Amino acid sequence: MDVLQIADAGQIFRILPKPNRGLTPTPISEKEAGFKLCKIVGKRNIEGGKLQINLHDGRSLILPSQSPRQKSEREFALGGAMQLGIPKQNIMGVVPFQT
């Protein structure tokens, strides 16, 4: 899910896994290069009523405590994906896990 930009050629790619083929560069637009999708692989409550979200690429985000705790825990369910803005690492959206 990483973004790769080749400056001389002016091309932007997202590196995606392909079954039985390893990683494959997929061309994307410049607008789409401004975010990265990360799978939520873990979460836990930490000191101060904050929620720690662990992502598939090794990142850990700490979210500030919120009034309705249940809403944020449901919103960031395991197996879902989080859309992170690049390079500021801000949360742009959440895609819930669906079977």
Which SSEs are present, and which pair or pack?
Elements: E1 3-6, E2 11-18, E3 22-27, E4 35-46, E5 50-55, E6 60-63, H1 69-75, E7 81-85, E8 91-95
Describe this structure in words.
By secondary structure, this protein is mainly beta. The protein has a single domain (3-95), classed as Ribosomal protein S4, central domain (OB fold (Dihydrolipoamide Acetyltransferase, E2P)). It has one helix at residues 69-75, and strands at 3-6, 11-18, 22-27, 35-46, 50-55, 60-63, 81-85, 91-95. Strand 2 and strand 3 (22-27) form a beta hairpin. The longest helix is centred in the C-terminal third of the chain and has 7 residues, at 69-75.
Instruction: Determine and state the CATH class.
Output: Mainly Beta
Number of strands: 8
SSE sequence, one letter per element: EEEEEEHEE
User: Quick one: overall form?
Assistant: globular
Separate helix tally: 1
Task: Supply the helix-strand structural class.
Answer: mainly beta
Task: Provide the domain count.
Answer: 1
What low-confidence regions span 5 or more consecutive residues with pLDDT below 50? none
The biggest beta sheet reads: 5 strands, antiparallel
Quick structural summary:
The chain has one helix and eight strands.
Descriptors:
99 residues, mainly beta, OB fold (Dihydrolipoamide Acetyltransferase, E2P), 5-stranded antiparallel sheet, 3-stranded antiparallel sheet, 1 helix, 8 strands, 7% helix, globular
